[in-house]
Design a protein that fits this description.
The protein is mostly helical. It contains 15 helices and 2 strands. The chain has one domain: Four Helix Bundle (Hemerythrin (Met), subunit A). Strands 1-2 form a two-stranded parallel ribbon. Helix 2 runs antiparallel to helix 3 and helix 10 runs antiparallel to helix 12. The termini are far apart.
Length: about 400
């Protein structure tokens, strides 16, 4: 399948990165650390995309330890495991942040770098949901699904905003900065407290705060993990509304219909109508096999986001289609039969349903892998570059080199 038409490839030469970072933590703490310390650890011969991929490998290691010690997301791991998660995620964030600096100093900036960076971030999103759920013992439950919804919506909205405004905007509080740092702190505290069970105790009593007569008992007894989800929900609403307003304002300034852009939220809405519907109809997946299903849902999102990024880079029309939701829709129709008393389910509610989830995961990996390979190969061939190594190292001209030496 061809994901980039030949007629659109010339638009790659018009690419120019545009980003706005409003985060105070990023501007005054992290960026000086990256610029003055971290970037010096990488040789000039190292490709920016290789830095990104190396950072992602730390997350993969974290997920593997989670699958070994806590595959059901509701069991305490050895404390050191949470420490490795904190270190691994911080390293991922650090490597992901300096790849752009490496690209600029090696003169390798280009559309492939943005695509690769965002693609890796999209894959990390669902994996980090699993790690967070395991660090708070959320288990295979609707709370974990709700966490996945909020995380994926944040990333989808951010990419949708960039497509329409042509600028990557990170707000005062954003997922790539404050969101990741919050998770790092959560993992580290879990390590200090000896396990994820700590987050299941009521927050206010554990802090020694007395109960007010005006406060409902249910609110006073809310656990740490429940308060965290409230906090995440508030941030989600704020960022979503801000992104929507930015998109509508940008289109209005260009003389375009500001409301038409909202149609770009349809793929996400359809997908997230199907996901909870399927899990509600098949509780065996929700409560016993949620981990592979979350990975599948994450790939579905990564595929949608990937198509959006490609359309942004080549200035193509917005991609509304996502073939990966077709099996999910078919499974829902199959499961509705017994519920409505109209037809028997071909998959049932046991082994065949589980097999369907793993087959869907395999299909998603195949389709997304094909997409990644085709897009990277097409861009590399057209721009005469390599993905994970530097094909044409930058050579400073003699005049500039002598001018620097004379200073």
């Amino acid at each position: 399948m061809v994901y980039i038409r030949q007629r659109n490839l010339e638009k790659l030469h018009e690419y120019k990165y545009s980003g706005v970072d409003k985060s105070l933590v990023s501007r005054y703490v992290l960026k000086p650390f990256y610029t003055n310390v971290v970037i010096k650890c990488f040789p000039m011969s190292m490709a920016p995309n290789l830095i990104t991929l190396t950072g992602f490998s730390f997350v993969i290691v974290n997920v593997l330890t989670m699958l070994w010690y806590n595959p059901t997301l509701d069991t305490d791991c050895p404390p050191w495991v949470y420490l490795t998660w904190a270190i691994g995620l911080f390293l991922y964030q650090t490597f992901d942040a300096v790849d752009g600096t490496q690209a600029r100093r090696t003169h390798q900036s280009g559309p492939l770098g943005e695509l690769f960076d965002h693609g890796v971030d999209a894959c990390n999103t669902s994996l980090e949901v699993l790690l967070f759920a395991a660090s708070m013992n959320l288990g295979q439950s609707w709370n974990t699904v709700l966490t996945l919804f909020g995380t994926i919506l944040t990333f989808y909205i951010q990419t949708w905003e960039e497509y329409h405004t042509h600028t990557l905007t990170l707000g005062i509080v954003s997922g790539p900065v404050e969101g990741i740092l919050t998770l790092v702190v959560v993992y580290f505290i879990t390590f200090l407290k000896g396990g994820a069970s700590y987050w299941q105790q009521p927050m206010l009593p554990s802090l020694g705060l007395p109960k007010s007569d005006l406060m409902p008992a249910s609110l006073y007894q809310m656990a740490w993990n429940e308060w965290y989800m409230v906090y995440g929900g508030l941030v989600l609403v704020f960022n979503t509304v801000s992104s929507a307003l930015n998109v509508m304002d940008a289109r209005r300034q260009r003389g375009q219909d500001p409301y038409k852009a909202l149609l770009g939220l349809a793929p996400f809405t359809i997908t997230w109508t199907l996901i909870p519907a399927y899990l509600w109809l098949n509780p065996v997946i929700l409560h016993r096999h949620l981990v592979p299903f979350i990975i599948f849902a994450g790939i579905v999102n990564a595929y949608s986001v990937g198509q959006m990024i490609v359309a942004h880079l080549v200035k193509d029309k917005f991609p509304y289609q996502n073939v990966l939701i077709v099996p999910l829709a078919c499974a829902i129709v199959d499961s509705l039969g017994p519920t409505l008393g109209l037809w028997p389910s071909a998959l049932g509610d046991d082994v065949y349903q589980v097999a369907f989830v793993f087959l869907s995961l395999g299909l998603a990996l195949g389709v997304y892998g094909s997409f990644v390979h085709d897009v990277i190969t097409t861009i590399c061939d057209y721009l005469d570059i390599w993905c994970l190594t530097i094909k044409h190292p930058y050579v400073e001209d003699t005049q500039n080199a002598e001018a620097k030496k004379s200073k």
